Amino acid sequence: MAGVMLREVTKAYGPVVVIPKLDLTIKEGEFVVIVGPSGCGKSTTLRMIAGLETVSGGSIYIAGKEVTHAAPKARDIAMVFQSYALYPHMNVAGNMSFALRLAGTPKAEVEERVRRAAEMLELIPYLDRKPKDLSGGQRQRVAMGRSIVRDAYCFLFDEPLSNLDAKLRATMRTELAVLHKRLERTMVYVTHDQIEAMTMADRIVIMEKGVIQQVGTPREVYTAPANLFVAGFIGSPSMNFLEGEIADEAGVLRVRGAGFDLPVPGRMKERVSAARNRDVTVGLRPEHFSANDSGGVLAPIQLQVDVAEYIGSSQFLAAVVGQQHVTASVDVGPDAEPLRSGDYYFDADRIYLFDRASGQAL
Amino acid sequence: MSSGRIDSPMKIWAHYAGLLVLAAICLMPIWVMISTSLKNEVLIFDGTPVWFFFFPTLENYEYILTRGKFDRYLTNSVIVASLSTFLTLFLGGLCAYALARTEFKGRRFVANATLLVRMVPPAVLAVPAFAMVVTFSLDNDLAVLTFFYTALNLPFAIWLLFGFYKQIPVELEEAAIVDGASPLQVFFRVLLPLMKSGYAVAGIFAFRIAWNEFILALLLTGRKTRTLPVGAAGFITDTGVEWGRIMAMGTLIVIPPLLFTFFAARQIIAGMTAGAVKG
């Protein structure tokens, strides 16, 4: 099968195992983002795909060929580094053409391909400049151009946007997505920023401690997180976790805890009833709180508001439910007064329940 | 002077006056050397020294260039200095690269300990070196002198180049590898251009030390393998010191390292403008 495949790949530094056993299949032409906190093994995984890091066990396939122990240049990959890694002594054109020149591509073709990539990235006016005379965003684009020129089978990105300021990052995110559409190449992108993952990915791979926690589309990992880690990692601000338990009230399942009492959504009933009398963790996303009862399946919940932060059309509340701290993002419009303690509502259909012992979603 | 600050004219004058004094202190011995080389014996030993206004003569130069063994000494010096400089840079570069790129316990210590070796003055090594060379009958061999100079210069070169290599992010090499470069191509097309200033600095030091070194050269060379400094010392004879000829020789000795330094310094400038690896 084409694409990129990792089969039972392990990585250990001496006795320290950083990646126990990793299986991942990336389809041809897919944009996959590997996301996780620093030290979760995502960069190591990418570097193993690139061939910059040896593999301790298992095998890696790119475009159907086994490349586990192949040199990077035999893998038909291009890579963009976090620090861009532009050759400081070469100008933009030199940087972009380096790989082609090494491969002995005819001069006319090198020029043509560099020109085409530079056009795509709006780098034509800068071709004669050295990297130090470019802005951060331009350097970023040169780094990208360097890999585009290669026309490689697979593109690898190692946190390429983390050195840019917030505004430029947003622009580059869009450019990258557009680029992926145009090139239709397999892309593997590593980041610790879940917004980047959500906005660009066809599928997201969430890793922690060298283990894949969940693989899914952005919608899947947001609406159906597999466990507490994924639930807490995806979404901004992150999900609130409250301790509670399942109660059966004359056939109606409810989840209760200090300061809250919410009905269990119908879709979960079967799975939850098996968890009766077990300790559960309730997950409430901040954005599913609301200030007034607009109908539907809203359940009342009392919030003791400590601070209300004004951020435009909504307000972030740092509040207490029972004795547990929660964050709520309440959409009240830009003209509302600072919100106070009192009755709020929660969209009861969007409750998440996790087994407290295992952390797995119910 | 720091930029963006406007100093009073007085301060600027004082600054340049200070620089002038320092320059004079540095340049005076050189002028004494050059002027003495252009004087005849009578003028040199004149009771009241003449600094500037005298009738120059080239008889000292004529003597050493036509009647001495200057060409042989020069050839020996050039061979020894350039060969040992090349070896120092080649071996030192390899060691420094290995030190900078491999992780092991006590790496910093090893890098700095090499510098400790450099603190031993050549005079201390002279006796054991002489004993060794004589035992193995290796005296009168330019290769031996080259070997000793290389050994003498290696620690400093390693330490210096280690610092330069540390500054080059490993991602640059990885990027080149992904771009399809072989190890040699990574070195010659990515690392070497960025290391130009480092190699230039190390080269200037190594060449200068090998070129000027006297004690080891005196002990380890014979009639055929004498280098320029030893040759110059030959004018200190039982019948007197021929200052004019020594100074003429000294003046000529200065020229090659001067040329070498100018050439190497150009690489330092080139390296600095290429630098700025990260923005």
From TrEMBL, chain A:
<dbReference type="InterPro" id="IPR040582">
    <property type="entry name" value="OB_MalK-like"/>
</dbReference>
<dbReference type="GO" id="GO:0008643">
    <property type="term" value="P:carbohydrate transport"/>
</dbReference>
<feature type="domain" description="ABC transporter">
    <location>
        <begin position="4"/>
        <end position="234"/>
    </location>
</feature>
<protein>
    <submittedName>
        <fullName>Sn-glycerol-3-phosphate ABC transporter ATP-binding protein UgpC</fullName>
    </submittedName>
</protein>
<dbReference type="GO" id="GO:0055052">
    <property type="term" value="C:ATP-binding cassette (ABC) transporter complex, substrate-binding subunit-containing"/>
</dbReference>
<dbReference type="GO" id="GO:0140359">
    <property type="term" value="F:ABC-type transporter activity"/>
</dbReference>
<dbReference type="InterPro" id="IPR012340">
    <property type="entry name" value="NA-bd_OB-fold"/>
</dbReference>
<keyword id="KW-0067">ATP-binding</keyword>
<dbReference type="InterPro" id="IPR008995">
    <property type="entry name" value="Mo/tungstate-bd_C_term_dom"/>
</dbReference>
<dbReference type="InterPro" id="IPR003593">
    <property type="entry name" value="AAA+_ATPase"/>
</dbReference>
<dbReference type="InterPro" id="IPR047641">
    <property type="entry name" value="ABC_transpr_MalK/UgpC-like"/>
</dbReference>
<dbReference type="Pfam" id="PF00005">
    <property type="entry name" value="ABC_tran"/>
</dbReference>
<dbReference type="Pfam" id="PF17912">
    <property type="entry name" value="OB_MalK"/>
</dbReference>
<keyword id="KW-0547">Nucleotide-binding</keyword>
<dbReference type="InterPro" id="IPR015855">
    <property type="entry name" value="ABC_transpr_MalK-like"/>
</dbReference>
<comment type="similarity">
    <text>Belongs to the ABC transporter superfamily.</text>
</comment>
<keyword id="KW-0813">Transport</keyword>
<dbReference type="InterPro" id="IPR003439">
    <property type="entry name" value="ABC_transporter-like_ATP-bd"/>
</dbReference>
<dbReference type="InterPro" id="IPR027417">
    <property type="entry name" value="P-loop_NTPase"/>
</dbReference>
<dbReference type="InterPro" id="IPR017871">
    <property type="entry name" value="ABC_transporter-like_CS"/>
</dbReference>
<dbReference type="GO" id="GO:0016887">
    <property type="term" value="F:ATP hydrolysis activity"/>
</dbReference>
<dbReference type="GO" id="GO:0005524">
    <property type="term" value="F:ATP binding"/>
</dbReference>
